[in-house]
């Protein structure tokens, strides 16, 4: 027998098998043929695998949306991933906002109250952007990749073996049908032999499929560990953001008086819980809920008294005219109020030098 004859016979056998399965499947749908049912344990495993696949896909896709809300960016990252190429670095939204704030503050002047506040806010936004980038990278590696590996690897193997099981089941039921229809003794003997073979192949494939499906429990355990990694990454990210914003609020509180910090005539005294570099849990929040951060400069209190106090200079300041006093950052001067002076200014004194100083450049000392 040459190769061509062998291929022709193989194609004919495959065509016959395909036709037999198609006929059996159609008759089952029409209720004209019996169907071998899988045992309850195997059916439960198949159902569990399908459920795992559906929810894993939904969780994976929504996590991608959470980490990267821009659909165009997600498509671009998907294309680069399929091409096995590294996606170009892209500035994220907090980083972009931070850069705009820094540029604006520089343009308005770092020596002005608003310009200085913008620069500080911009630097904080950029730190948040860096933390956001780290969250995405960590979550992609420790959470999304294992979920995707299950969908594109393990579940594809399960699907392949499940399809083989379906085909073996159709072959078995088709053999049962032919045995029922066999009349002659010779034909019946041949059908019984075929039934034994197809039953053996079906049982073997059912066992292979069952072993694969029982691995779903291990998959759940692995995904649980990955979920814990994702939660820890989020916890680190939110703790970092909280700490950054708390530090920023303290900086703004030190640099600017209460009339700069209030909004809609609301008090600038805001309850702020203490920050922790680790986990920010309910216990730590509850233990600090009674703390209140008063406006640090407390310059209005000074204006209500007739005495003088020491103050630390926060930034360099060049006097605009002879009535003002030039300042150097970190030096300590004496300040006091003068009746009738603008509320944004105090009188400063350094040795024999005296002049007006802007209160936004000062931090009062106890």
Compile the SSE list and pairings:
Elements: H1 3-29, H2 40-67, H3 71-82, H4 93-108, H5 113-181, H6 185-214, H7 216-255, H8 258-261, E1 270-271, H9 282-287, E2 292-293, H10 299-303, E3 308-313, E4 332-336, E5 345-350, E6 353-358, E7 362-364
Antiparallel strand pairs: 1-2, 3-4, 3-7, 4-5, 5-6
Your description of this structure?
By secondary structure, the chain is an alpha+beta fold. The protein has ten helices and seven strands. It has a five-stranded antiparallel sheet with strand order 6-5-4-3-7. Helix 1 packs across helix 5 (113-181) and helix 5 runs antiparallel to helix 7. The model is unreliable at 258-301 (pLDDT under 50).
Give a short summary of the structure.
By secondary structure, this protein is of the alpha+beta class. The chain has helices at residues 3-29, 40-67, 71-82, 93-108, 113-181, 185-214, 216-255, 258-261, 282-287, 299-303; strands at 270-271, 292-293, 308-313, 332-336, 345-350, 353-358, 362-364. Helix content is 65%, strand content 8%.
User: What is the overall shape?
Assistant: rod-shaped
Summing up helix and strand content along with how strands pair, one would put the structural category as alpha+beta
Order of helices and strands: HHHHHHHHEHEHEEEEE
Q: Which radius of gyration do the C-alpha atoms yield?
A: 38 Å
What's the number of extended β-strand segments?
A: 7
Q: How many H/I helical runs?
A: 10
Stretches where pLDDT is under 50 for at least 5 consecutive residues are 258-301
Taking the sheet with the most strands, its summary is: 5 strands, antiparallel
Percent helix, as a range, is 55-70%
Give the mean pLDDT: 82
In spatial order, strands of the major sheet run: 6-5-4-3-7
Q: N-to-C terminal Cα separation, in Å?
A: 106 Å
Task: Report the portion of residues in β strands.
Answer: 5-15%
């Amino acid at each position: 027998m040459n190769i061509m004859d062998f291929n022709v016979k193989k194609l004919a056998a495959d065509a016959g098998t395909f036709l037999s399965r198609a006929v059996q499947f159609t008759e089952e749908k029409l209720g004209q043929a019996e169907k071998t049912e899988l045992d309850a344990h195997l059916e439960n495993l198949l159902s569990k695998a399908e459920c795992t696949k559906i929810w894993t896909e939904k969780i994976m896709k929504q996590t991608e949306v959470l980490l990267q809300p821009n659909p165009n960016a997600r498509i671009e990252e998907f294309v680069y991933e399929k091409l096995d190429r590294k996606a170009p670095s892209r500035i994220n939204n907090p980083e972009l906002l931070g850069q705009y704030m820094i540029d604006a503050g520089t343009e308005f002047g770092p020596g002005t109250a608003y310009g200085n506040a913008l620069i500080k806010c911009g630097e904080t936004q950029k730190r948040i952007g860096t933390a956001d980038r780290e969250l995405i990278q960590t979550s992609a590696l420790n959470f999304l990749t294992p979920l995707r590996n299950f969908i594109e690897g393990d579940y594809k193997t399960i699907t392949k073996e499940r399809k083989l099981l379906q085909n073996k089941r159709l072959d078995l039921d088709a053999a049962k049908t032919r045995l029922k229809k066999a009349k002659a003794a010779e034909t019946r003997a041949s059908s019984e032999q075929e039934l034994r073979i197809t039953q053996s192949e079906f049982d073997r494939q059912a066992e292979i499929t069952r072993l694969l499906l029982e691995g779903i429990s291990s998959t759940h355990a692995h995904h649980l560990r990955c979920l814990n990694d994702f939660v820890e990454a989020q916890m680190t990210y939110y703790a970092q953001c909280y700490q950054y914003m708390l530090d920023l609020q303290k900086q703004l509180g030190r640099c600017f008086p209460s009339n700069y910090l209030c909004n809609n005539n609301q008090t600038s005294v805001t309850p702020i819980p203490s920050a922790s570099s680790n986990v920010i849990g309910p216990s730590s929040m509850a233990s600090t809920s009674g703390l209140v951060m008063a406006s640090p400069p407390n310059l209005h209190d000074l204006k209500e008294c007739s005495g003088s106090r020491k103050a630390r200079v926060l930034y360099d300041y060049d006097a605009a005219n002879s009535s003002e006093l030039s300042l150097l950052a970190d030096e300590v001067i004496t300040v006091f109020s003068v009746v009738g002076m603008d509320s944004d200014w105090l009188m400063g004194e350094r040795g024999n030098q005296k002049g007006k100083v802007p209160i936004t450049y000062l931090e009062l000392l106890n």
